[in-house]
Write a structure and sequence with these properties.
The protein has 272 residues and is α/β, with parallel strands linked by helices. Helices cover 32% and strands 24% of the residues.
């Protein structure tokens, strides 16, 4: 039988580990309609000192397992990770269908990135000079706008996972990245096609700050592990005439593994 002292010690260690593992927090963001309190999940490594940090922004379906899985990996690699919910405070759950977000919606959500990076910079355990942000799909399009906005506060790196480059029209003809930026896309993606991003980047300045990965045979949301590729007929699609409708969606394990390796290497290059 375990002794009382040993039991209390093991319980203390367990609670201490949980405290560092994940924590619900609120991130204030000022919008034209007032201040919103964005829900977020904070993932902290056990390491001491000031650490690099990455803010993560979801796609049109809200925070997903792919976002939290990546946050867990980032924590394991020694980064503070913040998974931000842009929808809860706005009383949204899913904008993939008839509520497909507009350019104005995306531009408003850019402020979520600014607010989240500012929140991270205020934390005593975060190195404010080593901040990055990641966006997925629609959130990747929002992160794209943030990554190429000259007036935005500086970040050390940005990662855009199968981003909606259709939102980047205002950046043409010569978008200028404000930090090293990685694009990670699926070759067969017909929701946020590679060709849209390639067209956007044709005239880009600071080409040395752009890193592009196109994963062979992969569709949209190649990191949705366990979900076979299927066709979603009712989703909005900015790459189609009139923004409607339909796209393929589903996992590619090989693309996911390559994405993880590319993300780890990219962040190590710019946040260490």
């Amino acid at each position: 039988m375990i002794g009382r002292a040993a039991f209390l010690l093991s319980l203390f260690c367990l609670l201490g580990s949980a405290a560092f593992a994940q924590q619900a927090v609120r991130v204030p963001v000022t919008t034209a309609k007032g201040t919103l309190q964005l829900g977020a999940e904070l993932y902290r490594p056990k390491a001491a000192g000031k650490l690099p940090a990455v803010a993560i922004f979801h796609g049109c379906g809200g925070v997903g397992v792919n976002n939290t899985r990546m946050a867990g990996l980032l924590r394991d690699w020694g980064y503070v990770a913040l998974v931000v919910d842009s929808f809860g405070a706005r009383h949204l759950t899913d904008v993939c269908g008839k509520h497909w977000p507009t350019e104005a919606d995306a531009e408003e959500r850019v402020h979520d990135i600014d607010a989240s990076l500012a929140w991270l910079a205020r934390q005593s355990y975060v190195d404010k000079d080593r901040l990055a942000f990641m966006g997925y799909s629609y959130g990747g399009g929002v992160a794209l706008l943030r990554a190429f906005t000259p007036s935005a506060p500086k970040a050390a790196a940005a990662i855009l996972a199968y981003p909606d480059c259709g939102l980047g029209e205002p950046l043409k003809p010569a978008p200028v990245p404000q930090q090293p930026t990685m694009f990670a896309m699926g070759e067969l993606d017909d929701w946020t096609p590679v060709a849209q991003c390639q067209a956007l980047l044709q005239g880009v300045a600071r080409k040395d700050w752009i890193e592009t990965h196109v994963y062979p045979g992969a569709s949209h949301s190649f990191d949705a592990l366990g979900l076979p590729v299927r066709y979603l007929p009712g989703v909005g699609n900015r790459s189609k005439p009139g923004g409607c409708c339909g796209a393929h969606y589903g996992a590619s394990e090989s693309a996911w593994k390559a994405f993880v390796a590319d993300t780890k290497a990219f962040l190590a290059r710019y946040l260490h």
